[in-house]
Amino acid sequence: MSHVPPRTYGFWTGTFVVAASMVGSGILLGPGYTLQATESPWALLGLWTIGGVMALAGSLVVAELGASLPHAGGDYVFVRQAFGNAWAFVFGWSCLLFTFAGPIALIALLTVQYIAPPDFDAQGPLAYAMATGIILVFTFLHSLGQQESAWVQNLTTLIKLLIFVAFALVGFAFGTGSTSHFSEGLAPAAKGGWSTLALNLTYALYAYSGWNGAAYLAGEMRDPKRNLPRSLLAGSLLVMGLYLLMNAVYIYALPMETIRSTSSADINKVAWLAGEALFGKEVSRVLSIVFGIGMLATTSALLFTGPRIAFMMAKDGLLPR
Fold first, then answer.
1. What number of other Cβ atoms are within 10 A of residue 57's Cβ?
2. Integer CA distances (angstroms), 275 to 164, 190, 238, 251, in order
3. d(Cα 305, Cα 214) in Å, to the nearest integer?
4. Contact, 219 vs 5, CB < 8 A?
C-alpha cells in the first residue's frame, strides 16, 4: 500500500526552507569577485537585484506548477508530468546526486572549515569525519517526524537569518566604514563592459539557487494552492532583501583601493575582509565561527527536501519501494 504523508507544513516552514536553501556560501564569497572584476559598487547591487528578480520570476512559475501538482518531489514531479517516467528517472537521479548529495557534502565540509581553528587540517580525515557527523545528526533529526523536521528547519533558519542581519546592521551602526565607498570606482557600466557584467551575474544566480525549495514539500503542505505560492515568493523576497543588505555592508566596509589591491585568492573571503575592516582583525575568528554555524541551516534544508525526490521516485516504481 502506498504511503501518503499528512499535510503538516504551513507557510512559515515553506518560507524558511526557501530561505535556508538559498542563503549559503554564495553571499560570503561571490560579491568579492564581482567588486574586483567590475570596480563598481552599483554594478554589484544591480546584478544582485537582477538575480533576485529572476528568482522571483522562477518562484512565480514554480508556484503555479506546484499549486496545480501539489505533490512531494518538486521539479521531479513537473518533469514526470511533462515528459514521462524515462526522463523523470534521469532527472531524479541527477538531482539526487548533483543538486543534493554533492552540495550537502560540500556545505557540511565548509561548515567544519569555518568553525575549526586556523591550524586545523581542513582537508584531513578528521574534517571529513566531522562533516559526515553533521550530515548524520541532521538526517536523524529529520527522520524523527514531520513536526520535528519543521522545528529543526525553522529554528536553524531563524538563527542563520539573525546572524546575517545582525552582522549587517551592527556593521552599519558601529563598524568602521564609510558611505563614500558607494561613490568610488566606476559607473554602473563597469570595467570590462557588458561581458563582465554578464559573467558576474552567474555569482548572483548561484547564490539565489534554491528559490524552488518549498515546492519539494508541496505534497505535505496545508492548503498548498495558497501556502506554496506565498512561501516561494516570501522566501525569495526575504533573501533578496538580505543579499542587498549584505552587499551594501561590504561596500560600506571596503574602499575600492582595498578591493583592487586584494589578491584573487583572498577576494573570495569578502565577508571576512569586511568584518576585519568594520570590527578589527581580532573579531575575524568569531565571525568565521558565527558564519559556520549559519551554514548548518543550509545542510538541514537540503537534507529536508532532497529525500522527497527519492520518495516520489519509489512511489512511481523508479526506485525500490
1. 12
2. 12, 25, 23, 12
3. 8
4. yes
Residue type, 296: L
Judged on CB neighbours under 10 Å (0-12, 13-18, 19+), 93 is middle
* Confidence (pTM): 0.89
84: left (phi over 0), alpha (psi -120 to 50) or beta: left
Residue located via cell numbers 523523470: 88
Is 10 within 8 Å of 222 (Cβ atoms)?
A: yes
Look-up of cell digits 515528459: 83
Q: How many CB atoms lie within 10 A of CB 49?
A: 15
C-alpha span between 273 and 185 (Å, rounded)? 18
Least confident of 26-30, 97-101, 119-123: 119-123
**Residue 203 pLDDT:** 93
pLDDT in tens, 235-286: 999 999 999 999 999 999 999 999 989 988 788 889 889 999 999 887 877 8
Question: In this structure, what C-alpha cell is assigned to residue 284?
Answer: 575575524
- Read off the pLDDT of residues 56-71 as tens digits, 9 standing for 90 and up: 999 999 888 888 888 8
- Cα separation, 281 vs 272, whole angstroms: 9
140's CB contacts (< 8 A; 6+ apart) are none
Check if the beta carbon of residue 52 is closer than 8 Å to that of residue 244. yes
Q: Cα angle at 175 between 173 and 181, to 5 degrees?
A: 100
**Helix/strand/coil for 132:** helix
110 three-state secondary structure: helix
Amino acid (1-letter code) at residue 141? L
